[in-house]
Each structure stands twice: as C-alpha cells, then as structure tokens.
Amino acid sequence: MKFFSYILIYRRFLLVAFTVLVLLPLPIVLRTKEAECAYTLFVVAIFWLTEALPLSVTALLPSLMFPMFGIMPSNKVASAYFKDFHLLLIGVICLATSIEKWNLHKRIALKMVMMVGVDPAWLTLGFMSSTAFLSMWLSNTSTAAMVMPMAEAVVQQIIKAEAEVEATQMTYFNGSTNPGLEIDESINGHETNERKEKTKPVPGYNNNTGKISCKMELEMNSGMGTKYRTKKDHMICKLMCLCIAYSSTIGGLTTITGTSTNLIFAEHFNTRYPDCRCLNFGSWFMFSFPAALTILLLSWIWLQWLFLGFNFKEMFKCGKTKTVQQKAYAEVIKKEYQKLGPIRYQEVVTLVLFIAMALLWFSRDPGFVSGWSALFSEYPGFATDSTVALLIGLLFFLIPAKRVTKTTSTGEIVAFDYSPLITWKEFQSFMPWDIAILFGGGFALADGCEESGLSKWIGNKLSPLGSLPVWLIILISSLMVTSLTEVASNAATITLLLPILSPLAEAIHVNPLFILIPSTLCTSFAFLLPVANPPNAIVFSYGHLKVIDMVKAGLGVNIVGVAVVMLGISTWIVPMFDLYTYPSWAPAMGNETMP
After folding, report:
1. How many whole angstroms from its chain centre is CA 41?
2. pLDDT-derived band of residue 320, with 50, 70 and 90 as boundaries?
3. Strands 413-420 and 219-221
4. How far, in whole angstroms, is CA 323 from its chain's centroid?
5. Residue ranges of domains in the chain
6. What's the whole-number average pLDDT of the chain?
7. pTM of the model
8. Using an 8 Å Cβ cutoff, are 450 and 504 in contact?
C-alpha cells in the first residue's frame, strides 16, 4: 500500500521519465529527421495533455530537443518564441490593463444589463451579451472573473426578494401582524383603532390562496453554504453561472485577439502561407461575428429552456408590469452602477483609444475597399494588426491620467509629475508571459515539423482521406478538436493539431481555410467540464453547480456550436475566401478546383 502511495506522490516525475524512455526507440531505431521530430512532438503532446510539467515549461522543450537532433539550429528555434503575434498581444494587454484599472468594463457590463430589462430571461441575455462583448477585447478568464461577482449579487437579491414577498403574502393570508404592513381588521363587526388601510395585492403574484403552497424545498449547497428556498431559486443560480461561463468563451470567437486559439491560428497561418493576405482583423470579424451571435442566442434559448423553461408568448408580451422581484433586480443593478459615479476622464480616454484601435483594425485592409494600409503601397504587408496594437498600446503609457503632487516644506501642495493611464508594473501584472511562451513553443514545434519534413510525411499518409466528402472531413476534424479540448488546454490543442491539419488539407487538395477555420473555432468549445477552461472553473467555484449540470448544459452548447460552424463554413464564409477553389498561395498539388 505504501508503494502505491509513493507512486501517487511522484506520479508526474514517473510520467515524465516513462514517456521519455518508452518513446526513445523511435529516433534511435529509425534515425530519420521525421522520426526525431515525431519523438519531440509526442513527448510535448503527452506533457501538454497530462500537464506533467507546466504548459509553458513543456513549450520550451523544442528549443532543447531540435538543436540536439540537428533539426534546427538554436538561434533559429529561439526566433520562433517571439513573433508578430507577441507584439499584437502586448498592445491588446495594454488596452485590457487600462480598461480594468479604471473600471470601464464594469460600466459597460452594467449599462448593457440595464438596457435589456430585469425579467429573468432578458436579464440572463443581458449578462450574456455584456460578457460576450467584453470577452471580445479582454481575456475570457478576466471577463468571467469580473462579471460573475455582479451576477452573483443579483442572484442573491432575487432569492432575498422572493423570501420577503412570500413572507408578506403569508402574513396577509394568515392574518398575523406584519410590522412593515398595517391591515384593516374587524372584530365582532367593530373596526379596531388601527389606521384604516386597505391591503393591496403584491404586484406580480396571484393572491388566490388555493395556489399558494406552504411547502418549500430547502436545498443546501455544501460548497457555498447557500440556502435555496425553492428549486427555482437553485435553477436561476445555475443558469446565471453557466451563462457567464459560456458567453465569455463564445465572445472570444469574434475577434482574432479575443482568445489565444485565434491568435495561434492567425500566426501559424500567416507563417505557413505568407502569400495569403486574406486573413486580418476585419475579415475574421466578418465571418466569425454571425457565427458567434447565432451560437450565443441559441445557447441562451437552450440554457433558458433547460433550467427555467422557455415561454415565447410570455417573454415577448407587451405592457407587462414588473413584479417585486424584477424591481429588486433592477435596484441591485442600479445601485452597482451608481457606485461607479459619473464617468471619469480616464474612462473617456480609454474608451476613445479602444474605439480607435477597433476602427484602425477594421479599416487597415477591409477587402471590399482600399484600407489605410494602401498609403504604404511601397511596403505591402509590412503594417499588420500588431502595428495598430503597438501604436495604441504606447499611448496608454504616454497620455496623462492624473497629476502627481507633493507637499513642500512650507506646506504647499505642488504638482511635480503626472501618472499615465497605465504603468509598466501594472502592465506586467496583466501580461500573461506563460501564455506567450506557450505560443512560442507551438510556433517552434510547427517550424520543426516543416523543417524535418514531418508535415509533408503526415500529409502523404493522410492523402487517402481525399476520397471522403469534404463536409465529412471537416465534421470529423471539428468533432475531434471539440473532444480533445475538453481534456487538454485550448492553446495546447490547437498548437498540436495545426501542423497536422494544414498538410492534410494540402494533401487532399482542399483550401486550407476550409479545414483550419472550423477546427480553430471548435477548439474554444470547452463547455463540458469545470477543468476544461478557466471560465468554467471560476463559475463552478461559486458552488451552485454540479459536474452533471455542466455536462448536460455543455453538451447542448457543443452541439449548437459545431452545427453553426458547419453551417457557416458551407454558406456565408465560402464566398469570402473562395473556399471551393484551391488557392495559388497554397503549395501547388495538381488541379485548380476542389474535388
């Protein structure tokens, strides 16, 4: 028994040693560059999937193994760890740092929730919309961590309001005294000396005693110690948690900078196919926004139906009066918004820079008209989305936020300097350096597969798949990615599969975007398990959910996501990139039209 306990304690160390030794015959026996690169790929893949080592530490292995195997020199491998993508990431993190420092994200989220109303169904849609919008520009994790406490406050106020209303109702029907409500009473035909006041029915509640149940379901959540008066209260808590988690992931699909998987794909694609200048911030938004919006709305309907039921007639009924609970929800949100005070100068400047960054991204090379990049026609392709991100990012360190003062010896307060919108220390606290290294490891791995010839070998072996219908190949790859990303990190999943899927598309003579776009989008569909991605873990920690709740809800959202992606890649995305034609920027492999 003690032996097994030691194995359990040192399981990560044993897994690393076992993996390295068991796979070692592969490069020793075959002695080819392809086999040596495959050995590196398998070791990195196993470590990423099992997290035997930290993801960013595993990402450094190609810089150690490729020079030792003679696949790539060390200086060439090192160059893969800092690319154009990293400059784009730095600019985006500057924006995210300023947004969170000055609480602009809270103002945007609360304002959007106030706009949609306080009916439970519309309230959840409001939170989903605001969360998805913020996730387009901030990381999924920080968005979920920011919005969830506000959603939790609203949920707790819902439970409190219902308890107060039911207590008032029970007092009214039982005839007992309620200190907060004075009631007319007649005793033996004589009125008491209490103030004569008619008791009014509580808005939104049926005052028919036959419809009031005194039996309440009390549930205790062991994780948070929260009491649920009724099953409906618990369902609302579950619904709100899942709405925040899923919308923070769905919103990230919309922009290249919205999630790490989009950034990894963009860098891999632009590196492998440098002659294709069809993929930029604007073109990505044009095809991903309809998909993300559709997934968001269908997910809202699915979650609403699963936990509270979905009544179209009641939801869209005009002239409805607000119930006491709905007034309570509105009051909580209004108070949270009022705590922010009037909009400040720093928030205005951050918002202006935010809008400027988005507009410059969209207008750089929109495709249907000439963008501002045409001003630099002598240097085509030199200015990229990272150029915009760095320009705006630098302004955050330059524009004054407030004056710095000091007190002189005479007691006079004088200004001697100013503080910018963000400082380097604040930027460092937000910058995900571990993710930056992880991306670099993925790029190095892709370069090694190309240099060693492993990518070409994989493509040749997968060429028989060309006999299958293209839609079936896309569906298989999408389902494979969706399944793998539930147990491995999204970034590790896409990093592993891109060097395999790209040569697959080339081998079967299909436009690479036809397979890579759906696979990249599906990599974000980690909805089933709390450990699948950070937003899931954040909402799960509040204690309202069980794993089975997330599995049931996530399965439906996964199906919706894959179905919408398949629909998009077959309809509106096709003419944007001429997907039915094998492009000239991909390796020439025969006919010019897709089979």
Report:
1. 27
2. low
3. unpaired
4. 33
5. 87-116+344-431
6. 79
7. 0.68
8. no
